[in-house]
Amino acid sequence: xxxxxxxxxxxxxxxxxxxxxxxxxxxxxxxxxxxxxxxxxxxxxxxxxxxxxxxxxxxxxxxxxxxxxxxxxxxxxxxxxxxxxxxxxxxxxxxxxxxxxxxxxxxxxxxxxxxxxxxxxxxxxxxxxxxxxxxxxxxxxxxxxxxxxxxxxxxxxxxxxxxxxxxxxxxxxxxxxxxxxxxxxxxxxxxxxxxxxxxxxxxxxxxxxxxxxxxxx
Length: 217
Ligand code: ADP
Ligand code: NI
Hints:
By secondary structure, the protein is mainly alpha-helical. The protein has ten helices and no strands.
C-alpha cells in the first residue's frame, strides 16, 4: 500500500472510531489537529507523512478514556499500523510521538524527541486554546460531571502525572492548571505565534466569567 492509501485508510478508520465522541475528542478535533499539524510541519520542514499519521492516530485510545492506561494510545496505533504493513521505522516513530504527546500536569515535563512530534504536540495543544479550547474544556467537564466553578476549591499545581490524573476539580480550575500554561510550553515558533491570540482570548473570557460570577457585570 502506498503512503496516500495508508493515510486514506487511517482517516476512515479514525473517523469511524471517533465520530460521535462527546467530550471534545471527536473526529473534528482530530481533523483540526491534522490541519494545524500539517501547517506547522510545512513551515518547520518536518516529514509530513509522519506528522499526518501521528496526528490522525493521536487520540484513538487516550489514557483519559482507557482507564488511565497512558500506553493504550500507542498500543492501539501500533496494532492499526501493523495491520496495514506499515514499515517498523515509521510505526515506531508514530507510536513514540503518541506515547509522549499528552499534557501530564503543571509540574511534569513532556519532552518530544522529534520535530514531527513537536509539530503534532503543538497542534494538539493549540486546539485546547482559544474559543475552541474553552468549548472543549466545558464539554470535557460536563462529560465527567464536573462543576463549572467553585471559588472554594483552588487550582492545583499538579507535580506528578498521578496527581493530575486523579484531579476532579471544577472546569475553571483547568484553565489555571493547564490551558494558560500551554503558550509557554510549545515547541515551535510557528505554534507560538498562533497561540498568542488564543491565549489572550481565554484571559479575557476568564475576566468576564469571574465578573459575571461576582455580579459585577
Ligand atoms: P492532552 O492529551 O494534552 O490532554 P487532548 O487532545 O487529549 O490533549 O485534549 C485535552 C482536552 O481535554 C482539552 O481541550 C482540555 O481542555 C480537556 N480536558 C482535559 N482534562 C480536563 C479537565 N480536568 N477539565 C476540563 N477539561 C479537560
Ligand atoms: Ni487531542
